[in-house]
Amino acid sequence: MITIWIVLALVAAAWLIARLVVTLRHDGLGSAQPPASHADWSSDLPSHPYRSA
């Protein structure tokens, strides 16, 4: 009887993993390109940002 429960648990785990894989592939995880990064902020900053005139 224990063997039946082990087999049933393995089948359920395999089904859950298969559903997770299908869901992640449908979601596009890992296949979409990330958004473009903004320009480097250090190039636009003054050398003395807190100095008063």
TrEMBL record:
Residues 29-53 are annotated as: Disordered. It comes from the Bacteria. This is Uncharacterized protein. The lineage of its organism: Bacteria, Bacillati, Actinomycetota, Actinomycetes, Micrococcales.
